[in-house]
Amino acid sequence: MSYQVNEKGYYGDFGGAYIPEMLYPNVEELRTQYIKIMDEPSFQQEFNQLLKDYVGRPTPLYFAERFSKKYNTKIYLKREDLCHTGAHKVNNTIGQILLAKRLGKQRIIAETGAGQHGVATATVCALMGMDCIVYMGAIDIERQAPNVARMKMLGATVIPATSGSKTLKDATNEAIRDWINNPVDTHYIIGSVVGPHPYPDMVARFQSIISKEVKWQLQEKEGKQNPDYVVACVGGGSNAAGIYYQYLDQEDVGIIAVEAAGKGIYTGESAATSALGKEGIIHGSKTLLMQTEDGQITEPYSISAGLDYPGVGPMHANLFRTGRGEFISITDDEAMAAGLELSKLEGIIPAIETSHALAIFKERKFNPDDVIVINLSGRGDKDLNTYIDYFKL
Amino acid sequence: MNRIHKKLAEDKKLLSIYFTAGYPALTDTFKVLEALEESGVDMVEIGLPFSDPLADGPTIQESSTQALRNGMTTAVLFDQIKDIRKTVSIPLLIMGYFNPMLQYGVEAFCAKCQEIGIDGLIIPDLPVQEYTEHYKEIFEQYGLSNVFLITPQTSEDRIDEIDSISNGFIYMVSSASTTGAKNSIGEEQQRYFDRIAGLGLKTPQIVGFGISNKETFEKATKTTKGAIIGSAFVKHLTAHGVDQIDSFIKAIR
Description:
The structure holds 2 protein chains of 2 kinds.
Chain A: E1 10-11, E2 14-15, H1 24-39, H2 41-55, E3 61-63, H3 65-71, E4 74-79, H4 89-102, E5 107-112, H5 116-128, E6 131-137, H6 138-143, H7 145-153, E7 157-161, H8 168-181, E8 186-189, H9 199-207, H10 209-222, E9 229-233, H11 238-244, E10 254-262, H12 273-276, E11 278-282, E12 285-289, H13 314-322, E13 325-331, H14 332-346, H15 352-358, E14 371-376, H16 384-391
Parallel strand pairs in A: 4-14, 5-6, 5-8, 6-7, 9-10, 9-14, 10-13
Antiparallel strand pairs in A: 1-2, 3-4, 11-12
Chain B: H1 3-9, E1 14-20, H2 28-38, E2 43-48, H3 58-70, H4 74-80, E3 92-96, H5 98-104, H6 106-116, E4 120-122, H7 128-141, E5 145-147, E6 149-150, H8 156-165, E7 170-173, H9 187-197, E8 205-208, H10 214-220, E9 226-229, H11 231-240, H12 245-250
Parallel strand pairs in B: 1-2, 1-9, 2-3, 3-4, 4-5, 6-7, 7-8, 8-9
């Protein structure tokens, strides 16, 4: 059994392309072209060169000695926070903009929640001299002013999504509507492993560089390519897909997915999709999502803007349903404490999204000789205001 | 043969109206349907509101949001229209996104439609492949016509495929856009209409998106069987409520 996507675009029961006919030509073009283009030697050469010289890859695999000692196990951190723009998101935007160029597109659109994917998209559009329009929920624009300013400096146009709940899911709706209205010259850079096939697989492939590097880096440090566990936070799930990718079908490697419980799973203010979601369709993909009994999509909550997506990528929905992945949910308070703890023990201030993955050790016990690789998906600079407010710094 | 097929066989251009169920007020659904029948409309698409209507522009989005706030659900809609066939005889379709139907249960949804006297479904985000593999038999078992969309970008091969599995009419989207985004039928659209007319499809075509008044209705129906007015009618409901439906329809033909 494989946990990769099948030829119809499904991970088990999840995935597919539930899109209006207006999007069909665009999505079909991508579906028939993406692997072909990604396999071209010239594409590979340009992609790898940019990852090295522009993004700063390979990112270090760092043995967190003091953090490991505290929890009496061996914890490695994959330092995606050291990527240009401060998170793993740029791996995907570099890949997609190179793809868009080869498809002859001149205009790039994207959605963003906290602004990280928007910044990563605006960055590569500046790099390639392409027009960039970023849709962002009107409420998120207020909450994430520094990232809005970054996008503007990078030359992007930020358009507020004022429909529905005015957050990430609505920004995604607006980006899709833009694509419907501009079907010929525009490429939509989705920021996570969500959306209609082939997006989940395409984004996972671009992010798979993370686990590809872990394999040889761990070989150097531990004399083996496979850790006992790979751990990541999951909103839509792109950083998780990246660190799981090479290990999906290697069952000796445990997969741990950490979701945001918000104020507690059953408080009504949570983003723990695996616990609260039901099978349904969001943004063109059949997956687990938070919804009313009547099938209306609901608004999740997390202190971390990057995790409050009401769905989860179809790869992860399948990992959950099949039991291949172990799903843990972490509250706001637990995540904030873990973020502060890593800062003090290792001198690394993580993004609050990532802090969720760092918080599992209070509950989940590991053996002293277990080797655990956590994807340190982003740095905490963007979250400083939230940390300041929370800890009264 | 359901009401849609009989209507399509009539020798006239069909005027079809879309409105959002439960809008402007929750209990307006029935009133709007009766008023539309009385005013001489040929067919109605009843919009089942959804929180995230991807193919819709602001007018229909806002009406959907308001309808949901009013308390509209799938079960409420079915209850509101359970006796509709006592007073309304024109073909009725439900137009909505797939997730609410999936949650209701696709078979239960279809069975309920048949029980009430709904003739067809338009589900923009249920793709052709999923429909033919998983749902075609169920829809047909309950006598429902499933209506697919085509756009100016749809390839001729795909139009042929859609033509072959269609049972009712093809919903011809007039331009690459969300609903209510464009208000005119220009030369580009006319060329597209002519191109489709030249394909000799077995399934009649009805044009939607961008039809808002007498002029656009007449242009859109020159080579097609009919046209659908959605956003413009919803705007009229927003401005005038349910009492002046007749004047809106009479202004079109």
